Amino acid sequence: MDFSTLDPMIRPRSIAIIGASDDATRIGGRPIAYMKARGFQGTIFPVNPKRPSVQDIKAFADVASLPETPDVGLIAVPGEAAIEAIEALGQKGTKAAIVFTAGFAEVDEKGAAAQARMVAAAKRHGIRMLGPNCLGLFNDAIGFYPIFSSSFEQGWPIAGRIGIASQSGAYGTHVYSLARKRGIGTGVVVTTGNEAEVALGDVLGWMAHSPDVDVICAYAEGIRDSEKFLAALDLARRNRKPIVMMKVGKSELGGAAAQSHTASIAGDDAVTDAVLNEYGVVRARNTEELLDIAYTATKRIFPVQNTLGVMTVSGGAGVLISDVAESLDFPMPAMPEAAQAKLRGFVPFCAPRNPVDCTAQAFNQIELIGEFTRSMVEEGGYTSCLGFFTQVGGSKTNAPKVRAQMKAVMKDHPDRLWALCIIASDEMVREYEADGFLIYEDPTRAVAALHAMGRFGEAFARVASAPPAAPAVTLPAKTPTEAEGKRILTAAGIPAVPERACADVDQAIAAAREFGFPVVMKILSPDILHKSEIGGVLLDVNSLDAVREGFSTLLRRAGEKAPTAHIEGVLVAKQIKGATEMALGILRDPVFGPVAMVGLGGIFIEVLKDVAFRRCPFGEAEAEQMIRSLKGFPLLDGARGRPKADVAALAKALANLSAFAAAAGPRLAGVDINPLLVLPEGEGAYAADAVLEITP
Amino acid sequence: MDFSTLDPMIRPRSIAIIGASDDATRIGGRPIAYMKARGFQGTIFPVNPKRPSVQDIKAFADVASLPETPDVGLIAVPGEAAIEAIEALGQKGTKAAIVFTAGFAEVDEKGAAAQARMVAAAKRHGIRMLGPNCLGLFNDAIGFYPIFSSSFEQGWPIAGRIGIASQSGAYGTHVYSLARKRGIGTGVVVTTGNEAEVALGDVLGWMAHSPDVDVICAYAEGIRDSEKFLAALDLARRNRKPIVMMKVGKSELGGAAAQSHTASIAGDDAVTDAVLNEYGVVRARNTEELLDIAYTATKRIFPVQNTLGVMTVSGGAGVLISDVAESLDFPMPAMPEAAQAKLRGFVPFCAPRNPVDCTAQAFNQIELIGEFTRSMVEEGGYTSCLGFFTQVGGSKTNAPKVRAQMKAVMKDHPDRLWALCIIASDEMVREYEADGFLIYEDPTRAVAALHAMGRFGEAFARVASAPPAAPAVTLPAKTPTEAEGKRILTAAGIPAVPERACADVDQAIAAAREFGFPVVMKILSPDILHKSEIGGVLLDVNSLDAVREGFSTLLRRAGEKAPTAHIEGVLVAKQIKGATEMALGILRDPVFGPVAMVGLGGIFIEVLKDVAFRRCPFGEAEAEQMIRSLKGFPLLDGARGRPKADVAALAKALANLSAFAAAAGPRLAGVDINPLLVLPEGEGAYAADAVLEITP
Predict the structure, then answer these.
(1) What pLDDT is recorded for position B255?
(2) Chain B contacts of A174, Cβ < 8 Å?
(3) Count: domains in chain B
(4) Which of A133, B261, B373, B513 sits 20 to 30 Å CA-CA off A365?
(5) Nearest CA among B180, B188, B302, B165 for reference residue B245
(6) From CA B523, how far away is CA B536, in angstroms rounded?
(7) What would be an example GO MF term here (chains A, B) (predicted)?
(8) Secondary structure of residue A523 in the 3-state scheme
C-alpha cells in the first residue's frame, strides 16, 4: 500500500484555500493567519471571488484562475459549494483536499447522499480527501496549519517527532494541548472527521512512512477500513515506529455514545485488543499514559528483554515501584551478590538488592550516586534504569551534581533508558531532559511507560509462525447438522469424538456396541442448536437397554419442546472422561473478518469470560500463546496433581480451525466447538460438540 | 479510644528541641529555622549545653532547666542520649516526644534492644512517642515544623484541610510536594518512622478526631496495631472524614522490599482490601489518584447514590468518559426524554442523552452553557456534574463567561459536585477553583475521583447487619478428624452432608443402606489432611458390593501412601448431585485475626482465585454481599437455565462460620470447607468436606 499519496496533503508545497476569509477568527481565516504566524514554507493561494487579497495575500476568484496547480485544496465553503470545489480542484489537477465543511453523513440521510457525491467526485479525479466535517491538521516542521482549532490561543505546539492521528478533532487537540503543557513535542496532528475517503489507517500509514514522525499516537472510536489499517500497523512495525493508541467505545455505554457521534462501527473490543496485540500496538488506558509512553518512545530505545533497575532514596517508593512492576510482569532481577556486597561497602545500611535503596547518604557523598549507577548498569545489566530522587533530585544544590554523576555513566551506556522521578521546576526538568534523561513526577507512570518500551521491542523482534496450509473448504448451503459440521471440521484437521448419526434405534445400539460404554446420546436436528436446553442430551448411557430407552426419550422430548423441528435421528458418541473441557470458536468481526477464540469450556466461558482471541489464520506457536494466556491455563498444565493435558493437540486444532475459517470465506458466520475434550499429553483433543453457522 | 493524646505532639503550645543546632541545615537546626520562618504560635525551647542561644532563641543546658514543662520534646541527639532525653522529658512531665534519632530496630538486634528500652522509658512516663528514625511532622495551621525534610527548599505547603499520614518519610514528603505543585492544600503531614510506640493507626485516629483535618491521605507498608487502626477507621467514618490510602507491599517483590525496609508485617493484601472496604476506605492505585481523590473530597460532598452527568464539546471525550464510568460501575443515567427534546430545541445537532454533547455551538451562544447546565442538574438530577471543555474552557475570552453561566446554576445547587476538564493557565485554574469548581486536566482521572465520592457516601451511610450470636465453642486439643470437624461446625450452624464415621465394613454397609445410593467413601484419619492426594476418596459408590470393595481399597491405599497415619476407619456420606460447589474458609491474619473467605469450589478457587474476604464476625447481609461480589456469582443465580441456588442458606452458613471463628479464639488456625454443596433455592447448603486446623 502506498501511503505517500498523502504527502501532498500533509507535506505540500502549496495550498489553495477555498472560502478564504480576511477575518482571522473565522474558519476560512484561521488557517491563513496560523500559516503566516508559523511561516509556512510553501505558497498560499486564497480563493475568494469578492476580494483582491485576503490577509494581505493576493487572492483569486476561483480555483481555475490559480497560476499553478496547488498540491492541496482546503475547503471551507458550505454545502453544495464544497462539492463544487472538489470538482474544480480535480479539474485543476490537485490530488489532495481537506474539507472543513460540515452537514454531511454526521447529520442525516440527505447529508450522507451529498457526502457520497463528494467522494465520487474526489475518486473520479484521484483526489485523496480528508473529512468532511474535520478540524484539519498541522505539520509544524513546515509551518503548515490547515486547521481551525482555537487551541493555539494558549501557545504553539512544541517541535518534535510525535505524530497524533485522531478521529475526534476536539480530543486530538486536547492531547496536543496537554503535550504542550508538559513540554512534549508533537510535530504533526491530523484529525479525520467523517472519514469519507481518508480514514485513520491512511493517516497512520503516512506517519509510518514519513521521515517527520518517529512515534505515533492514535485516538480511535471505530476502525472502518481494516485493510489500510492493518497495512499501516504492519509498516509501522517494520519501520520500528511505535504506535500507542486510545481506542474508546469499548463499554456498552461508550458504544452508544460512539454511534451517536460519528456513526462508527465499533468492533468488538476484545477483537480490537487482539488485533492491536498482534501488531505490537500498545493500548493506553488514559491520555496521560498515552503521552507518557509517546514521550518515552522518542528515545527510540526498545529493549527486547526489558529489565527494570531502580535506585531510590525512599524504601517506601521502592516498594511501590516493585508492586507496579510486578503487576505489569516487568522483571526486576536482583543485583548480583558481589555487586550487592560492593554497594554495602559504600553505604553500610543501604538495601542493595533491587530496588537499590542508596539512602540519603548518597546525597551527602555525591560521588556515590555515580558508583551506584555504574554498578546497576554494568553489573545489574538493567535496560531500564529508574532513579527515584523526588525533591532531593530537584534541589538547586543537588541537581547539577546528580546530573554530572549520572551523565558520566550514561555516556558509556547510551543504549539504556535513563529515567528519573524528581520534583523540580520546569526549567530544571528541561535541563535534565537536555542531558538525555526522561523525567517523570510519579514512579507509577514512569514504570508503566518504561515497560511499554519492552513491549514495542518484543513486537519489533517478533517473527510469526506460518499458519497451516489453507484447506479446501466447500461450505454446505445452510447451517449443517452437528454430525455434518463435525465431518467438515474433521476434514479441516479438528478431530471429533468417535460418533455416529443413527436414524433408528438399531443403528444406535450397533454404534454403542462398537464404541463401548458409556456413550452420550444427542438429538439430531438442524433446527435445534442448543440441545441441552430442551433436554436433548443424555450422558452416562451405560447399557443396551439404556440406549433403547434413551432413543425414545430424546424423540419424545424433541416432539414436546420443538414440535416443528425436522428430526434426523440420534447421535451416539463415545463418552470421554478425564478430559479437560475447552471451547474453540470463530466469530466474524464486521471489520477484521474471522477471529478465533479459545477458552475454558462449559459454563465458565460465559460466566468468567476467560478467553483469548486472534485474527485468522495463524500458526501453532500463536495458538499456544493464546492458550497460555488464559487465566485457567494451569488447569491444562497439571494444577493440583492433574495430568498435563495435550496442549500441542489443542494448539494444532486451534491453528487448523483458524486456517479453516480464513479459507471458508464470508459465508461462514461462526463456529462454536464446546466442549473440545483435551486428553492427557500425547492422547489428543477431540471436538465433542460443534455448531457451524452458515449464511445461506 | 482517645486519640486526643496526640494533641500535645501535633498541636502543642511549646516544644523543647534536644540537640538544637545553630546550623539551620542540620537536623537539629532545621526545625527551628522552619518554625521561625512559618511563625510557630507556641514557645520554642532549644536544649544545647554548649550555647546560650540557638538561632537567636535563648537555649537551655538541659531539659531539667527549662522554665516550664514543654508539651512535646523533639529529640535529635544520637544513640543512648536519645533514650536519656526521653527519661528527662518524662521527669519534667512532658507527655509527647518526636524522635529523629536513627540506629534502632531498623538496623540490627542491638538497635532493637535499645528501642525496647526507649519505649519502656516512654511508657513509664506516659509519653506518646513518634519514631524513632522518623522524619517528623508538620502542622502548618500553627506553623509547627518539627521535621528535617529538605523539601521546603522548593516552597512551603499550601494551607488546607488535607492530612497526610505516612509510614515512609521520603514518600510522605513526595506526596505533599506533588500536592503543592498542583495547588492542593495539605495542612498536616505526619511520618511515623519505626512506629515503636505511635503507629499509623494513632495518627489516622488523631486526624479523624482533629478539627484541623477534613480529608485523610494515608501511605502504609504494613499495619502493626489492628485495634488502633480499626478504631481510627471507625472514628473517621463516624465523623464523615474520607480516608484514601496507598497500601503497598502487595506483590511478592514488593513484599520483599517492604520487609528489608522497615521489617513490616505485610498482611495478605486481599485481607487488607477487605478491611479497607469494610470501613469505606478508598484505596488509590497511584499517587496521582490519591491526590485527585483527596482534592475532590475537600468539597465534603459525598452522594449516597452517585450519578454522573457529562456535558462535552467533544463526542470523542464523551465516549472515553462513558468507558471509564462503565468500568467503575459509575451510573450515567440518560436525560429524561422531555429534557432531551428541550436541548435539541437549543442546538438541533446536539447529542442530548448523556454524555450531552452541546457542540461548539454552545460557545458561540454562551447562555446555552447555562441552559444545558441547569437542565442537566435539575432535570437529569445528577449528583456529579462534569464538563469537558478542554482548551475552549481555558480561553481568555470564554473562561469568564463560562464561569458566570455555570456559577448561577451552582448557586442554586451547592450540594452537587461541580467538575470541569479544562486546559488553562495556573492562574485561570485558581479562578475557576475560587468559584467552587473542581478542575482536572484529564477526564479519566476526574471520573475516578468523582466516583470515589459516592463510595465514601455509601460507606458513611452504611449500617452493618448484626452478626449471628456468638456460639459457645470448645475446640478440641488438636486438629480433629473430618467427622469431628463437621460435628463442631454443624453445632455452629454450618450443616453437613448426612454421613457417618464407620469403624468397620458392616457399619459402612449400614450407613449406605440408610442414606441410599450413591454414596461417597473417604478414609478417616486425623493425620491425612488432603485425602484426594492419596486416592482416599471414592465417588459414585453404587451398591453394597461396591461399599465392601471400597472399604478395603481405601485401607490398602492409606497403608501404602501414609503408612504412619492413624486410621480410624472410613467415612460414608450421601453423595449429593446437582449442587453448586462452593468453598468457605477461615484464615487467621496475623494483624486482623480471623477472616472468612467464600469462593467457587473445587479447583477453580485455586486457579482462578475468584474469592471474597471479610473480617469475622459479620451478618447475613454482608455474607450475601460477599457472595454477590464473586465473578462466578451467575453460576448461583440461574446462569444458562440452571436452577437458582439457595444463596440465603449459603449466606447463613458463611455468617455462622464467621461467628464461630470469632468465638473460637486464636487456637483456631484455619477452616477449609470445600466443597460446600449449595442446592436449589429453599433446599439448603451442606458442607461435604471440612478441615479444621487447631493450634495445639
Answers:
(1) 45
(2) 314, 317, 390-391, 423
(3) 4
(4) B261
(5) B165
(6) 5
(7) ATP binding
(8) strand
Q: How confident is the model at residue B603 (pLDDT cuts 50, 70, 90)?
A: low
**Closest partner CB to A353 (pick from B260, B317, B607):** B260
Contact across the interface for B607 and A634, Cβ inside 8 Å = yes
Q: Environment class of residue B244 by beta-carbon count within 10 Å: exposed (0-12), middle (13-18) or buried (19+)? A: buried
Where a domain ends, among B67, B102, B135? B135
- pLDDT higher than threshold 90 for residue A433: yes
> A397 vs B421, which has greater pLDDT?
B421
pLDDT digits (tens, 9 = 90+) for A435-481: 999 999 889 999 999 999 999 999 999 988 889 999 988 898 888 88
In which domain, by residue range, is B568 found? Answer: 498-574
Element (H, E) at A654: helix A647-664
* Distance in angstroms (rounded) separating the CA atoms of residues A473 and A488: 8
Are both A266 and A199 inside the same structural domain?
A: yes
Distance between CA atoms of B371 and B373, rounded to whole angstroms? 5
Q: How far apart are CA A139 and CA B644, in angstroms?
A: 61
Burial A371-407 (b: 16+ CB within 10 A, else e): bbbbbbbebbebbbbbbbbbbbbbbeebbeebbebbb
Contact criterion met (CB < 8 Å) for B254 and A323: yes
Q: CB distance B326–A533 less than 8 Å? A: no
> What ipTM did this prediction achieve?
0.84
Establish if B686 belongs to a structural domain.
yes
Cell triple for A19: 472560502
Residue A465: inside a domain: no
Residue A160 and residue A279 share a domain: yes
Amino acid identity, position B431: E
**Measured in whole angstroms, how far is the alpha carbon of residue A304 from the centre of its chain?**
19
- Rounded distance, CA B392 to CA B403, Å? 12
The minimum CA-CA distance between A614 and chain B, rounded to whole Å, is 22
Contact between B651 and B623 under an 8 Å Cβ cutoff? The reply is yes
The answer to whether B107 contacts A171, with C-beta atoms less than 8 Å apart, is no
- Compute the residue count for chain B: 696
CB contact under 8 A, A395 and B641: no
Of A526, A553, A574, which residue is a domain's last? A574
Cell of B687: 458442607
Give contacts of A423 with chain B, Cβ < 8 Å. 151, 154, 174, 177-178, 181
Instruction: Say which of A173, A317, A322 has its CB closest to residue B391.
Output: A173
Residue B566 and residue B602 share a domain = no
CA distance A134 to A148: 9
Distance CA B349, CA B353 (A): 12
Element (H, E) at A244: strand A243-247
Tell if the CB–CB gap between A251 and B631 is shorter than 8 Å.
Answer: no
Nearest to B423 among A178, A322, A390 (CB): A178
pLDDT digits (tens, 9 = 90+) for A29-43: 999 999 999 999 999
CA atoms within 13 A on the CB side of A82: 27
Asked if residue B605 has pLDDT above 80, the reply is no
Residue A479 lies in a domain: no
Q: Which residue of A has its CA nearest to B394?
A: A154
Judged by CB atoms closer than 8 Å, whether chains meet at A178 and B603 is answered as no
Least Cα separation, residue A330 to chain B (angstroms): 11
- Which of these ranges, A411-415, B393-397, B412-416, B467-471, has the smallest mean pLDDT? B393-397
- Whether B448 and B536 map to the same domain: the answer is no
pLDDT in tens, A89-130: 999 999 999 999 999 998 889 999 999 999 999 999 999 999
Same-domain check for residues B570 and B588:
no
pLDDT in tens, B1-57: 899 999 999 999 999 999 999 999 899 999 999 999 999 999 999 999 999 999 999
Global model pTM greater than 0.90: no
Do B608 and A606 make contact, defined as CB atoms within 8 angstroms? no
Domain holding A182: CATH number? 3.40.50.261
Nearest alpha carbon to residue A502 among A565, A545, A554: A554
